[in-house]
């Protein structure tokens, strides 16, 4: 008998309807707002999908083999997912991340056996990405590069998009996703628009001066190479204050314990819902709130 492994637990996450936030307005307008619970993946985020995909596809191409060293610059969730995937498949994992990211994330990566290299807060993710490339040039390991690796959006085209289509029975009209590496929004958009070109794809971006973990507005020279602007119909800007308040509301009013970028996507979904009718709006709940307890976003 073949028993499933932890790899088989990745994906096929639930899709749930919000019941209280925006309920009266949505009923009046005939809308439903749904959250895709990616925090239910075994390492706790949507990044479990591309992490395993990037390693498995690299193995298939003969680019890496168990025992090799993998390197990645990460702001958190991808690092945790890669640490888990490396543990499953037998790799040494070196993760490079800015020093100001939440302590829970760093501890979780270490728990999976990853080695951490912390970079100055002032350099942000751009510095971390440059350092990863330098380490690869020096022969210290292979960078999977979630920002340029087509196996990132590919797995969302192959899994996340089809799941959403099936779970909504093809009724989805709007898809909202926070934009970091842009893998989720790019891959899901390609699939959904093949099925129905009228589906609107909305990206959540941080407003000027906002620091929201997991959502980035990249300088042009660091824009992820996997990003295809033609796959996104609209960008909506969310403030750190609005994202954090929605984070608390999701937990208190819906029982959905989500991260700040997920809450930013939810806030954007509510803005969309306020101006459309008879719509099925899906947003990605990309991770869980327990990664953010030390940030102070939740009341102590």
Automatic annotation (TrEMBL):
InterPro entries listed in its UniProt record: Cys_synth, Cys_Synth/Cystath_Beta-Synth, CysM, P-phosphate_BS, TrpB-like_PALP, TrpB-like_PALP_sf
Pathway participation: Amino-acid biosynthesis; L-cysteine biosynthesis; L-cysteine from L-serine: step 2/2
Residues bearing PTM N6-(pyridoxal phosphate)lysine: 47
UniProt EC number: 2.5.1.47
Ligand binding (pyridoxal 5'-phosphate): 77, 180-184, 261
GO molecular function: cysteine synthase activity
UniProt keyword list: Amino-acid biosynthesis, Cysteine biosynthesis, Pyridoxal phosphate, Transferase
Cofactor or coenzyme needed: pyridoxal 5'-phosphate
Gene Ontology BP term (one): cysteine biosynthetic process from serine
Domain Tryptophan synthase beta chain-like PALP: 6-287
Substrates-to-products reaction catalysed: O-acetyl-L-serine + hydrogen sulfide = L-cysteine + acetate
A Pfam family assignment: PALP
Enzyme class: transferase
Family designation: Belongs to the cysteine synthase/cystathionine beta-synthase family.
Record-given protein name: Cysteine synthase
Organism per entry: Ramlibacter rhizophilus
């Amino acid at each position: 008998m073949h028993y499933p492994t932890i790899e088989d637990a990745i994906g096929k996450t639930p899709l749930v309807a919000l019941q209280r936030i925006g309920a009266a307005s949505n009923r009046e307008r005939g809308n439903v707002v749904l959250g895709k619970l990616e925090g239910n993946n075994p390492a706790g985020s949507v990044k479990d999908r591309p992490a395993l995909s990037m390693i498995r596809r690299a193995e298939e191409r003969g680019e890496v083999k168990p025992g090799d060293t993998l390197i990645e610059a990460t702001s958190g969730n991808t690092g945790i997912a890669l640490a888990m995937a490396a543990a499953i498949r037998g790799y040494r994992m070196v993760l490079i991340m800015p020093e100001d990211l939440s302590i829970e994330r760093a501890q979780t990566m270490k728990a999976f056996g990853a080695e951490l290299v912390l970079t100055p807060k002032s350099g942000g993710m751009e510095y971390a990405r440059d350092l990863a490339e330098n380490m690869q040039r020096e022969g210290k390991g292979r960078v999977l590069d979630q920002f340029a690796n087509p196996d990132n959006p590919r797995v969302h085209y192959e899994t996340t998009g089809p799941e959403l289509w099936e779970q909504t029975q093809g009724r989805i009209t709007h898809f909202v996703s926070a934009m970091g590496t842009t893998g989720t929004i790019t891959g899901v958009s390609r699939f959904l628009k093949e099925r129905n070109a009228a589906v609107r794809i909305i990206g959540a971006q941080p407003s000027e001066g906002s620091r929201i973990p997991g959502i980035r507005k990249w300088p042009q020279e660091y824009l992820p190479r996997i990003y295809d602007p033609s796959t996104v119909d609209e960008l909506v800007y969310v403030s750190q204050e609005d994202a954090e308040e929605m984070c608390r509301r999701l937990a208190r009013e819906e029982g959905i314990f989500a991260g700040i970028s997920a809450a930013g996507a939810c806030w954007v979904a509510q803005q969309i819902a306020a101006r459309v009718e008879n719509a099925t709006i899906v947003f990605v709940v990309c991770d869980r709130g327990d990664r953010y307890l030390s940030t102070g976003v939740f009341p102590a």
